[in-house]
Amino acid sequence: MKISPVNPVVHKCIKTYLTKDQFGSTHFYDYDNCEYYIIRETANPDVIKFGFSCNCYESILKNGGQEMLDELYKGLVLPKDQGHPDA
């Protein structure tokens, strides 16, 4: 079975916020109960906040996930107090 590395649910939602000048917030879930959110505020239209949560996120961060985030998204990860309140 070939599985695409691109999550189609995430791709569609992010594309909508990038191409349609959409503002507000959206929560959505994929097939394995991972929660995602996108927030784009009218006060800062150049920033789109994207977040992810799952049952094993702590384990993912401890086993290399934090290093990956730090490397790939250096300077783009928000401090915890600026993120989504439920994340």
Describe this structure in words.
- It contains 2 helices and 3 strands; from the N terminus they run H-E-E-E-H.
- The chain has one domain.
- With 87 residues, it is an alpha+beta fold.
Secondary-structure topology with pairs:
Layout: H1 8-19, E1 24-29, E2 35-40, E3 49-53, H2 57-72
Antiparallel strand pairs: 1-2, 2-3
Question: Notable features of this structure?
Answer:
alpha+beta; globular; three-stranded antiparallel sheet; 87 residues
How many strands in all? 3
Radius of gyration: 14 Å
User: Which word captures the global form?
Assistant: globular
Q: What percent strand?
A: 15-25%
Characterize this entry briefly:
The chain is an alpha+beta fold.
